[in-house]
Design brief:
Layout: E1 2-4, H1 7-19, E2 24-29, H2 35-47, E3 50-55, H3 75-83, E4 89-91, H4 95-98, H5 117-120, H6 124-139, E5 143-147, H7 151-163, E6 169-173, H8 193-198, H9 201-214, H10 220-234, E7 238-246, E8 259-268, E9 271-280
Parallel strand pairs: 1-4, 2-3, 2-5, 3-4, 5-6
Antiparallel strand pairs: 7-8, 8-9
Helix pairs in contact: 6-7, 9-10
Length: 287
């Protein structure tokens, strides 16, 4: 595995691969790896000749009261983990590489950045879109791999790639979960034992909602109410939002139809957890 810290060296290495006709897969991350990250890398290794993984904790996507300073970091641990996955290149740029002095340019994917998590984290997806656009220009991969857990991020980046004509395909990999259903997240380490025991209620509530939909429920308000009730009755979690939206546009829906994204964000003390499911809605049979 090559560890690279400069754009010049990265491009030099990848130009060699392209000259040999090799397909490049890219996994952008903020590090502190878990099985979810590794599943993206394995998919990239399976489908591509070269797997590039980046680690960069992007300050532009953290608000002034968010956890940039305390976000978990352990490069030595991360390097050991992905060496076992046979990753070809680990790219670890510094702040000065990503945002050089007097940096002024940002990307704002309108509308879909301002709903769900974006409503409560203003500027977050502007930071995400900007840094991923820069990384795509640095790596120039054939395929970029993203996790479904960050569903709004997937939607924002997919729209950015389409609108700005980036020559990259996006593969979305299913959310990796613990045995009890909790979505894997670098932030899970901040949960107390009691909070960790309660946190799987998020996925239980989502699964129950899916069952209600499969049984014929089509009212978004009823589904939202059911999820909120389960979480509040079975945990100490403080709900930030529960929403039913169109899986493509992220616009709120009243009646469930087509493909629906059910997403939520819940605080356990100061730890903010997100989760979601996408539900294809079958049309009622015509009599």
């Amino acid at each position: 595995m090559r560890v690279i810290k400069t754009i010049t060296q990265l491009r030099k290495e990848l130009d060699k691969a392209r000259a040999q006709g090799q397909k490049i897969g890219f996994v952008p991350t903020m590090g502190y790896f878990h099985e979810g990250h590794l599943s993206l890398m394995r998919r990239a290794k399976k489908e591509c000749d070269i797997c590039v993984v980046s680690i960069y904790v992007n300050p532009k996507q953290f608000g002034p009261k968010e956890d940039l300073r305390t976000y978990p970091r352990d490069i030595k641990r991360d390097r050991a983990m992905i060496r076992k996955e046979n990753v070809d290149i680990l790219f670890i740029p510094s702040d000065n590489v990503v945002y050089p002095n007097r940096y002024l340019t940002y990307i704002d994917v309108e509308k879909i950045s301002n709903t769900l998590c974006g409503k409560y984290r203003p500027g977050h997806f502007k930071g995400v879109a900007t840094v991923v656009a820069k990384l795509l220009n640095m790596v120039a991969p054939d395929v970029m791999y993203l996790g479904q857990k960050d569903a709004q991020q997937v939607a924002v980046l997919s729209k950015m790639v389409a609108d700005l004509d980036f020559p990259v395909n996006i593969r979305v990999v299913l959310t990796a979960r613990e045995k009890d259903g909790l979505a894997m997240s670098s932030r899970n380490i901040f949960l107390t034992p009691q909070e960790r025991a309660q946190a799987p209620v998020l996925y239980r509530a989502l699964k129950y909602a899916v069952g209600r939909i499969q049984a014929g429920e089509r009212s978004a308000p009823k589904i939202i109410s059911t999820i909120r009730k389960i979480i509040t009755q079975q945990s100490s979690g403080r709900i930030q939002y529960v929403a039913c939206v169109d899986a493509g546009t992220l616009e709120p829906v009243g009646v469930l139809k087509h493909r629906v994204l059910i997403a939520l964000a819940v605080f356990f003390n100061r730890t903010r957890l997100i989760d979601n499911v996408i539900v294809p809605i079958k049309s009622a049979r015509k009599i």
